[in-house]
Each structure stands twice: as C-alpha cells, then as structure tokens.
Amino acid sequence: MEAESAPESAATAWEFTDDRGHLVVAPRRPTRLAAYIQAGAALWDHGLRPAGIFGSSHDDPAAADPAKAGELPLAGLAYYGAGAALDLDALFAAEPDLLIAVTYGGGQTYGVTPEAAKHLEEHIPVVAVDVSQGRTLGQVRESFARLAHALGAAPDGAAEAELTAAEQRLRLCAAADPRPRVLALSPADADSVHLARPHAWPDLSALTALGVPLVAPPESPGANWATVSWSEAAALAPDLALVDVRAHAAALPADFAATVRTAPWNPELPPSPQAHTRFLDTITAALQTPA
Q1: What range(s) does the Fe/B12 periplasmic-binding domain occupy (predicted)?
Q2: What structural domains does the chain harbor?
Q3: Cβ atoms of residues 220 and 196 within 8 Å
Q4: Other beta carbons less than 10 A from residue 101's beta carbon
Q5: End-to-end CA distance of the chain
Q6: How large is the average pLDDT for residues 189-193?
Q7: Which of 24, 112, 146, 207 is the most exposed, fewest CB within 10 Å of its CB?
Q8: Cis peptide before 178, with omega less than 30 degrees from 0?
Q9: Is pTM, for the whole model, over 0.85?
Q10: Does residue 54 register a pLDDT over 60?
Q11: Sign of CA dihedral 56, 62, 67, 71
Q12: Contact at 8 Å (CB) between 16 and 4?
C-alpha cells in the first residue's frame, strides 16, 4: 500500500493504492481528514490530527468511545456518529478531502452501512486499511505507516525502536516460569461472555508469536469469538484475563473478577507503533504482577 508517483502533467495530484487494491485519487495531498475512530487514533500517533471521526454500530451515536481513541484528544473534535446513525450531512458539511476507514476483509467499509459507504465513495476519496484476521499486527501497522507517510507524516525511528524494545521485554517475560494461562474476552452480559479466538485477532496473534500462552476457546460457529457462560470461561482456568474495555462491553462479574487477574484489552488497537508499544507493555506488566 504505497503512494503512487504523480505524473508530470499533474504534479500536485495525490494517488494511493489501499488494502482493497483501490487506487484512490485526489487533486492534491489531503489535509482535512475524516476517519474511523481507530484510524483517527493512529493518525494522531503519526502526528496528524483528523478533522473528525466516526464510530461503528457498537458505539454511542452521540459520543466517541474513549477506549477506542487511544491518545487522540476528543475534546473539540467533531464526531459524526456511528453505524446506521452516521450523520452524513454533518460529515459532508465538514468538507473532508479524504476519509480513512478500516475493513475486516471483503472490501466492506467497517462502521457504516453499505448504502452509506457507497454514498461516501461517490463524493469523497476513501482509503481503507485492512485490519482483518488474515494479517499480522506488523502488516496492519505497516499499511497505516505508508498511508501516514503519504499524507505527510515523517517516519518516527524512535517509536519503532521503542516498539522493538517492548517486543523484547514481553518475549523475555513470557518465557519465564511459571507461564500463566491468558484468556482474552469481551463480557456480553451477566450470564455470558465472548471468548476471543487468538488466531482471529492480529494483536492476539502477535502475543502468541512473542510466547504468551493464550487459551483457545471451544469450537463453535463464531469466527472471531466463542460465546459461553461465565462458568465455562472459569473452567478454562485462566490466570490472566484480557478484558475488552470498549464502551459497549458489559461489566465483568464480581465473582470472576475476584478469582482471575485482569488487564485491559482494546480489540481495536490503533495501528501505530506507539499504540502497539503501550499494548505490549501493558501485557508485560500484567504478566509480572504476582498472582
């Protein structure tokens, strides 16, 4: 996913091929960016502030989810709504010259209805970054880095070095005995919980590659999650639970929280070196916390 060289006859044109294979064209390099909140948070880490953001069908249509925003300051930032409640009139009124979305494969723009996605692409150039299970965390991060650089962000060697160091810290920590059993989950309600399949999430796959022993949930129809009772989750005997902190996740039952150590987990990590460093250091600290 790289910016294409502009022809001499249109030296100010901007072209970019996104993860869908779509060639996105603008008259000049975009500067007024609208973005899905996850992408907006990554833009901020790369030194680019979006003009506004939007959420998904899971999100509050009236307020952005701070758990998804990473380090992105939400105060004073335009929020265009979420899912079917996306306010297209407000988004168009802001006159963005590029919309940055994510996709979980298949070319579908995540967070908006297919009708809204089609309408957006008829009026605004749209770049989509693939964050699906078929990609490694490094590939997702690289896709966004190339986009950020095409938008004028300078490479950040220090951030990359800090990420490499965080990976090494976690690798060493995960290799130490005893090795705790780690389970990633998203509370559904008081009776049930969604257990994440490690291979289905680039961030969890990265943890596995670094030696973190993630527990696989039982087989079931769900591609990304297995939905089970809390007693079934407890029977897997996790030592550490990575708990979904997004606003739409339910509360963790008190009895489960009393018996299992927990650490925060955002399944929609901003695809940036800084966010990934923070995530890996959070896991390292959790593994180092005495039982």
Answers
A1: 77-249
A2: 8-150 (3.40.50.1980), 157-288 (3.40.50.1980)
A3: no
A4: 24
A5: 44
A6: 97
A7: 146
A8: yes
A9: yes
A10: yes
A11: positive
A12: yes
